[in-house]
Amino acid sequence: MAENKEILDTSDISLLYPDADSLRRHASGEDIAALSPATAEQLELYYLMDLKSCDFGSFYTADPEVILYRQDTFGDMIANPELSHILLKMIPLLNDITELRRMGAESAASTEAYLYSITEVELYTSLLDLLKNNLLPLAPKFKSSAFRRFAERINTLTASEYYKDLNERLTELTSRVREIRSITIGVNLDAQLRADKAGVLSMNNEPFKSGDLLDKMLRLDFRSDDMTCIAPLVPFKKGQPDNQQMALSNAFTQAINEVFRSSIRSWKKVIQMYVLENTDFLIRLMPEIEFVTKATELLLRLKEKGCPLCSPVIVPMAEKTFTAKGLCNPIVASKLDTAVVPNDFSFDEEGMIYVLTGPNRGGKSVITCAVGIAFVMAQLGLPVCADECVLSPCDTIYTHFPTGSEDTIDKGRLGEECSRLGMIFESITEDSLVLLDESLSSTGSYEGAYIASEVLQGFSMVGCRGIFCTHLHDLAASVDRINEACLPKGGVKIDNLVAAIEQGSRSFRIMRTKPDGKSYARDIAEKYGLSLDHIMTKVRSK
Fold this sequence. Notes:
Strand order of the largest sheet: 8-9-10-6-11-12
Low-confidence stretches: 1-5, 405-410
Helix content: 40-55%
Structural class: alpha/beta
Radius of gyration: 35 Å
Number of domains: 3
Shape: elongated
CATH topology of the largest domain: Rossmann fold
CATH architecture of the largest domain: 3-Layer(aba) Sandwich
Number of strands: 12
Distance between the termini: 101 Å
Strand content: 5-15%
Largest sheet: 6 strands, mixed
CATH class of the largest domain: Alpha Beta
């Protein structure tokens, strides 16, 4: 076989990372960005994508270069729907290769191990043929570096003389090995006609035929030839003890192993030097393939729902910018058959942290999650659900939502909430995003507003971006006082947002204005029939 000169450097082949160094930094934890499973769950990200071999934190990044690289990758995925089908067809082949390697390692130098090595090469060639016949014809359409580089590597591999030689050797070897149906055994006898030496004389591509008269009659063939048995070996007769049968079977197996060992030893070397090298990068891509295909499915579903999608403009983290026009929550968009109400939202010098108040079911939690999901989607490299978006990545998203499984036995509900808030302050930075939904609602309004005010001052002094969604209207009323305390010390400015009521109904519009707590109290009273007018109507109707 030709000397192997086709082991390529595939360390930079990735659908999600622009070069080997960025991939290494992420794998080693040098990338400062992190997204916890708890945050992903509270933002309901698993409703959007059901990931099996990875999670959302696996690919979350704050590196602008990586994000832009992925935007181009998803651009190709959307523009070429066939790509998802091609990538998904790779997964079973790669899973089979992975399983064969495991089985081969466990089988050591047995016949099975040699057969596994041949099967692995067959899977490898099938995989490259799949990509050659389906991916390469699309290559002229690719605009992303990810798919252009991927196609170039596949073209180099499949066009090489070494690969052609490999296919020829594979055909030759499989025809010899896979078609073996019997072996011819030679036994030397001593002067007393006792077995002296025995060995395999040949391997045949047809099974031997019984010499029994009944068998000849059924075959209508009374000829005897080299493949006709004239006397069966005794250990394989009915009624013989298992240990006798096992002894002869082991002897045959050992002899066959020896034949394979001599004929496939060089083949195993090929596996180690060539196939292993050139399939490892494809196996490494498996979690990326799952992610990009499922993310593309999500984008197409959102598009069908009429949800706006745009690739965000990524600006440096230090600018702490976030501006979105026509922002939507993709989870709500996925669940509704009607169009969702979009909102404009921004973090800026007049408001890096917001206290968001408003009526029940007025859209407060929806917009809070929409902002968090926009950051996640953007930093995964996906388009966000907005008409326009400019974003500075955040290092981490912290959520403090009602979990329904609080550790209240020892601490009580308030103690549990305070404990979780304290943990956020142990690691939050000025580049973080914090989202709080109805935090500290488990206590009285006075106590809750006091603790929440302290927490808000802490976030202001950290300098992070955040939203505090709350029914504590005393907290909203104290925003000016908190700013007066924090701004002179270098804190960031806090502002108010309100889930608006228009003409007595929830509009799901989020307004940047001071709240009117009485209007929400009136709204709640009206909802439950406890306004004075409703009460008097009920009284008079008795």
